[in-house]
Write a structure and sequence with these properties.
The protein is mostly helical. The protein has one domain. It has 5 helices and no strands. α1 packs across α5 and α4 packs across α5 (about 80-95). The radius of gyration is 13 Å and the shape is globular. The relative contact order is 0.17.
């Protein structure tokens, strides 16, 4: 798991203003902002980290990682970045997947 991606998502989660600013940007723009905050990673590294985290979380929860992954239901009506920051990261922390 890419610690830079996780740490950046945690940083975004500490400030509603930062999340509000970033949630409407493209992935490339968000990655550029991350680099400006000292978190350098590529789009491929970001994607791999997020997908790996979701797969590991599903396994830990004993749930299939498919189109019906229950955690994804929390995403409806929100931006993907909001889901990552508020749901994925907190779930990973609660299950001990990240410290």
């Amino acid at each position: 798991m890419n610690a830079g991606v996780i740490d950046f998502l945690r940083l975004v989660g500490t400030g509603a203003d930062l999340l509000d600013t970033l949630k409407v940007l493209s992935k490339d723009e968000v990655i550029t902002v991350a680099a400006g905050h000292g978190f350098a990673f590529t789009e491929a590294e970001f994607d791999a980290c997020v997908w790996d985290a979701e797969v590991r979380l599903a396994q830990r929860r004993g749930e299939p990682f498919d189109a019906h992954f229950p955690l994804w239901q929390t995403m409806w009506g929100r931006y993907y970045l909001e889901y990552l920051v508020t749901d994925l990261i907190s779930s990973l922390e609660e299950t001990g997947q990240v410290a």
